[in-house]
Amino acid sequence: MTTAIGTVWPLAALTTLFNYPLGRLRAGAGRRSPRRFGLLAASVLLLFALRHAFGLDWPSGMMLVAGMALGQTWGRRSAASEPSPLRWRLAAYAAIVAGLVLLLAQPVQAQGDEWHRLDTVEPAPAFTLTNQEGQRVALDDFRGKVVLLSFIYTECKDICPVLPQIIGRVDKELTAGEREKTRFAGISLDPRRDTPAKLKTFMQTHSLSPERWTLLTGTLEEATKAAKDYGIVVRPDIRGEFIHNAVYILIDPQGQLRTEFHGLFTPTEEIAKALRGLIGEEGAASAGKQEK
User: Fold this and answer.
1) CA-CA distance, 264 to 163, in Å (whole number)?
2) Same-domain check for residues 66 and 161
């Protein structure tokens, strides 16, 4: 998954700022001088490192190239004096070190490229939250249905808009009878901003049917506890958003936590297969009771 355009603009601006001092230090350097080559190499390394670290595609990467060119040009034109060798070497080394650190770091979007499945049988952590209609809803209210639970928030620009799309594809793989026995639920990771009205708008924007979906919010304490209980790791980022792991959680009709799929792009057929398995278990159990 590529980084959203809302992320690329700040990165391009950051690239411009990084390259401004490097451009100043390159001013006046001869075409074959070590200073000119070293600073240019450091700039290019930093550019590729940023693209790697934030998982940018090539069109988005070209915006960073434009930012680099702008910063270099701006810096060269505003250079007032010849810098000392120590200054330009320190700047080059700092850019190289920063670039290497970013290159060695795992890309922001790397979690979406891999997935794994975890099966278990244990009581799903209970919660009582507020849905998009302003009504209090507990996990027990979903009894009798297989629940596919995820964690999102409405201001998210990267993972969260994709999650409902993927779950929507899962829904299309189910039969009408299977759909009757499943429900989708999403718990907000940003309860301070995600009011019931905002959740309702999000559902309308992303064409999420209230017959299939329930979005939930609550107090900060309630939402934080739910995320922690289900193993969701959340941390703020420099954009004022949150970085969190993508998990699809399956809860059976008896309220037991059964399967977790970790990874944004978990194959939809795998999730649908697991849902069918839980629906089949419930059907077999019901048939057994009728025979008795």
Assistant:
1) 7
2) no
Query: Do 121 and 71 reside in the same domain of the chain?
Result: no
Distance between CA atoms of residues 278 and 146, nearest Å: 7
- Nearest-angstrom CA–CA distance, 248 and 271: 8
- For 7, 200, 255, 257, 274, the CA distances from 222, given in Å and listed in that order, are 29, 19, 19, 19, 29
Q: Tell me: the pLDDT tens digits for 97-143?
A: 565 555 554 444 444 457 899 999 999 999 999 999 999 999 999 99
Q: What is the pTM of this model?
A: 0.62
* CA-closest candidate to residue 203, choices 214, 193, 195, 217: 214
3-state class percentages of the chain: helix first, strand second, coil last, to nearest 5: 55, 20, 30
Supply the range of the domain harboring residue 95.
5-105
Do 27 and 64 reside in the same domain of the chain? yes
